[in-house]
Please model this.
Amino acid sequence: MRVRAVVASAPGRQSVEHIPDPEPAASEVVIEVRACGICGTDLHLLSGGLGDDRFPLVPGHESWGEIVAVGTGVHDHRVGDLVAVDPSLHCGRCGRCLRGQGNMCEDWGAIGATRPGAWAEYVAVPEANCHRLDASFPREAAALLEPVACAVRGLDRLRPRADEPAVVCGAGTMGLILALLLDARGVGPVTVVDPHPARRELAARLTDATARHPDEVTGLRVPWVVEATGHPSGFTQALDLVDRAGHLLVFGVAPPAARVEVSPYRVYADELTIVGSMAILHSFPAAVDTVRRHAARLTPLVTATFDLADIGTALDGVRAGTTVKTLIVPGASRGARR
Ligand SMILES: [Zn+2]
Ligand SMILES: [Zn+2]
Model:
């Protein structure tokens, strides 16, 4: 049997091709992909921003599906299980892995970035990356588990207190997820700041946050601020919004070479706390609980669904920022999947 997959062959070039049927290694399972999200990291990867040595590659790191084959050494999962996939790959042996900091692994990788991902009908993944979804799990929200796990990790780093105001800079997909999770933790009122009217409209419609243009929050100071734009100017504004003794989470992915001016005096005198968070660390189980409890509020973030064959149209929508979370659902156009 041959498997349909999106193959990125060079920067800016991807097409739907048939790839060999994935075989599970001893400790792996093969998943029939039910859905896989598209995010900004994928756009970065497809444009060659993570390096040309990534090609050719099947992207896709926000997936869930049904196990259809298991390797000879798999014990905790069986054919028929529904699972979501944590894409993080840690070596488990380096100093940072041994200290429990696997997302800082010297050999860090990810399914869909350093090995074939889930923009495909089937994908092989390590059993250890699978998180079982029971029959009652809200499947329509399952593809949000990976980005929610990243957001949970971010809030684990920020540790915001309930009933105190927060600002999220950036109303992209992650900004909206973070705003929803802050509210779910009782943090608030939450304000989302974004220069784009369409995104502010989405933020107002899909969250309980107040949406503001950056010019409308000049002079505002709050104890909890999340930078989720990835732009250096977003960082500067986010830092300006932090109240004395306040906390800033740097969640957005800025260009590695970007630099901004920071006042060391202000960090000192105002006792500012600035933390970063990178991907997922011990946060996937909490994401499963979070998505289950808040599915009714998270599911509307899925605003577009495309078959593999329509990957070009799907990517255009993500680039244009006209969707919140776009999913690839193999067979969607045929209505073949449950
Ligand atoms: Zn992602
Ligand atoms: Zn390691």
Q: What stands out?
A: The domain at 149-276 is CATH 3.40.50.720 (Rossmann fold).
